[in-house]
């Protein structure tokens, strides 16, 4: 029990864990689901039974679990079952089978989880097939269409457990056959096909392995009839279905079924079956399943010996051939598989009908269609490989048919031919006559140029292997793996080694030959010998050795052909010469090892090969063999035309071999041939020929020199010259090339020949002939040659001669009498070179030659010659530009420049060593002084240090070290000038030595830190009087082409200024000017940044001077000046001080000056003053730098106030004429320059100040409201200021107290514009409650009240507006300050200096707003005064005045209760006016009348006013007036006379509508008055007293009304719907 306890607990734990995992399967993350699946599988490895039971229980309990989650569990069960099938308990298997069966069939809809359940059954069926079948067969009942997955499970079981399942198939087929007719849905038909296919395959496998089967009595005919019955349904019915997937399922099934059909039935069906299958190719793009089934049918037909195939053969071949011709796409696997199946079909047919298949295929090799040829070749390869016995007697026929494909140039055809040749090799075709042509073709393809960069293949070219690579691989495989090819290939392949056209094939050829030779050696020592008596076409051993040795000279070319060639050479050692076996066995592996090290120098490698050749010749020691060898070498020379490197090496080999030849006649003969046949116009050829002569001269000096002299005197040379002279343009050039070669030959002879022999011949023979060839004479006059090759060859030859003398053992005793002449010639060459560029290596090589000439050769040069040599060389090199930049003959200009400097250095060193005296030392710098007379004397220490110190960061480490040494020496010399002893040690200067270590590595940080330290030392040691010259020269270093040095100059300048800048106050303007000019000159980022740092350093020491200097820059500031201003924003404290200075300059000067215009009648115009304008621009630049944020925040209020007032003072101000033209010029140069216009400039500066001060929201709000444009408008400036003030109140409230404090004094400014701006700003602030919150209300209100007497009318108006704004900004404070506010408004209405009543208008508008927050007692004392004061405005011609006065009157009626009678009188005074003005579209008369109604004591009138005078209703004026008059005469008949008199006043109104309405008004009054009161009016007097025609007419109409006419008869218009103030709708 105790032992079982832990296991039981583990099972519980495992079960619980599994349940937890299964609960998590609902997670939608695929990664989580996969991890759950893996975890269940892992648990199943340790406790399979428990996990399977847990899964079963979980799925039964969670019947509604979504199918994606069921799939995870079922797949895990399948995996656990598969991995543990051997140990699975029978009871557990039953549980799993039952669960999977139920899961699989619980839904008729096909789901993924049912597939998973089926897979579980298949997995269990591997061992428990009977249990599975027992369960599944219960759901497979006769006459009932089974579940889809029941059938699929049967099929899969038949595949996974063939021996267990086949015994059940007879009964399953018996039950299934009747069901085929019941299947109506495509998916059921497909699954039946799937089952029949797998049943057939399983039966075939069972029958094929009867010896292992549990029931060996099973036979094919057991199933034949059932299979045939099923076949009839599938082929005759379902194959005709329109659904493509079903047709493919039928085809897949019919193929395996054909093996099991009765033979006679199959034979009977073939005439229908094969055409039916072939017809499907046209219906289906994907042909693999068709081809697979067709192949199975063909095999079944052949197996039964069918006679029907003969009839079908042409159709089969004609259909299958295009399938192969269509290229297979490797990215689509089914197309490749289809090719395989079609080729299998051809195999079946070729085995049965070889003659007819070949007769069909071979003519197609001549087709013009590339695909047809390629496809046919693929089929040929297939049948050669798969039908060898049938093709045996066809070999000659097939070989002869390949002639045309061998000539095909198409790459795809070539690849196919190579594959056919490979197949032929395996089956003995190449041993037949004609096989050699196949091998030659293969080698030719190996020799194709390798494709370094392969072109994008076309759509059909779907293989990535090139013809060459396939051919190389094929050749190697045939050599190494096909034993029967050994005698075919050996020694036949040797024929392809020497022809030059097979060079690219040498590597595979050598590898194959080496392998073949080694196999021959294994057969016996003599077997590898080349039998020349049996193989007349084979190359000789001399030819093979020459060829393999020459190609080895380029060891890495052609896929490392050098290694392959040497290894083959080693294998052929006995065939080349028996004496070479020991030497080559030792030396060749060593040479191969050198190649494989991959670090070969070409020169060293050639020397090793030539040494190997020498040792070979010494080992052979047979003059006859050597003579044949060298003759063969010379014969091969012309083969290497086009291979200059190999040919050059072959020349060296010839020279080496001639040197070993003892036959002097042969040596001279071969040298003569070489001179006669050389291609002199090729540089490599000239070099090779000269090398050959030089090497030959080691052993044959006399013969070599004699042959060179004889050649010049020979007819061959004279004929060449004569022939060339026919072609004037060519003659000189060709002859010069021959002369160049001969001169070079002498140089090589001198350097290679034994020194004891050659020294005596140098001047007497060699130099004499060299100069004879070099100097051309015309009519006895020496003519300088212009041929560069001839010059270079002469220089090189003389250099080699000098080296020969220098290296000679007796050089100390040798007197070179022509030394001065040769040096003079070199000097002439150097002088002839251009000084502006280095295009050729002439000066460099001439200086190298001079170095050898002057080294130790006697006699010494004379002083004049020595001086001229030094002067010429220095002038030629030092005059060159620092960037040589040009290339010639593939030599980089910078490399040539460096080599030339090295040559100059070596020459000067040699001259010093030859004359190591003070006089000799003095000669060297003399040209420097003579050629550079402008160099500043030493006492100008600053300039010299400035020249050297930036080079401490030069890109060359050696220059950096020398530069420190120079500064070190200069500072000690200065100390000596100051009186210190020569042995004095200065600790600070000595510190420079410690810096040199850090300058070894090119780390920029270290380099510039060292430059800083050097500058600190220099700053402390340079005298004050030289500090400025040091800085000026250092500034020149900013333009140094070496960017490291340019950066170093910037570091040093700034370090010096930090250290000593405080004493340079008077020089600051000059330094600033230099900085600006350098910024213009050098367009480098590091220079710009450093210059800004320089400005900052100067400003930190001399603020005022820097600011004044920058303010003096021309306007508009260019980009460099702007950058200098922005550099002042780097440090908040300094930036604040700079900003304060600029604010002081803006405020100190007047903003503009008045200038009278010359135009007649024009007034004066305002012209901006330059200093405030420049300061404003400077403020903009500094504040545009993000670093200025802190300083701007600290000076927010003064900056804002100054810039706000600057804006106000520049509205309408013009630029000076000079600046206007300058701005136009800058506009044309720059695409979108910032405007220099004073007002625009001020606005932009204010905007950037707000943004940098953290008030971006203010900027955006003002911009979206159009405030910035308003500010610049002279007419709307105050409106723009109001927008700004509102935005400040909303978004920058905490900034306002200081702003208000700074603005208050400007209310007393002498400039109206500043008072207007401040008043407008304050007025809008009062519109916000923020002034109350910040306790600014009283301050601002008092200042507004104080502005009522301002001489500027706009200021007075804005002040009243501000006081009125208190009603919206601080309504709760209106009553508190009511008396003051009312008094201000009344004073405003009484303003005498207000010709256009604008102040009065503002007072009335503001008072209307204030009344909403006052009570009756607050206004009682002023009520009548105000009413009387505003009455005249009712008739004003200004709509605004009328509107404001009438609205105010309406508002006043609210306060008339306590003095009702007095105010009623005012209502009567205005009643006629208000009624007549009802036709005014801009008025608010309806509102006033509605307000007056309750105070008139007439309920009828009050109702009429309230009901008819609403803005949303239209009004018929005539009818309305009729009713009004009716109520008036009923309630106030005594007022008739007064009303009529008031109307009479409007008879002369300027408005026609009112002139017409007034008489009508009278008429309606008369109409409704009673007779007692009617006597008061004399109507005749009214009519006679009116002189205006329209009024007379109206009067008559009015009398007509009085006589009883109706109102609508007089054509009076109606007033449309009453709308918002300022709009109207009038209807006739």
UniProtKB/TrEMBL annotation:
Identify the Gene3D superfamilies for this entry: Leucine-rich Repeat Variant
Q: Which domain of life is it from?
A: Eukaryota
List the Pfam families hit by this protein, alphabetically: HEAT_Maestro, HEAT_Maestro_2, HEAT_MROH2B_1st, HEAT_MROH2B_C
Entry keywords, A to Z: Repeat
Signal peptide segment: none
Where is the MROH2B-like HEAT-repeats domain positioned along the sequence? Answer: 261-914
- Limits of the Maestro-like HEAT-repeats domain: 935-1139
GO terms for cellular component: cytoplasm
**Maestro/Maestro-like HEAT-repeats domain ranges (all copies):** 1341-1584
Sequence intervals crossing the membrane: none
Q: Is the keyword Ribonucleoprotein assigned to this protein?
A: no
Q: Which residues form the MROH2B-like N-terminal HEAT-repeats domain?
A: 40-258
What is this protein identified as?
Answer: Maestro heat like repeat family member 1
What is the organism lineage in this UniProt record? Eukaryota, Metazoa, Chordata, Craniata, Vertebrata
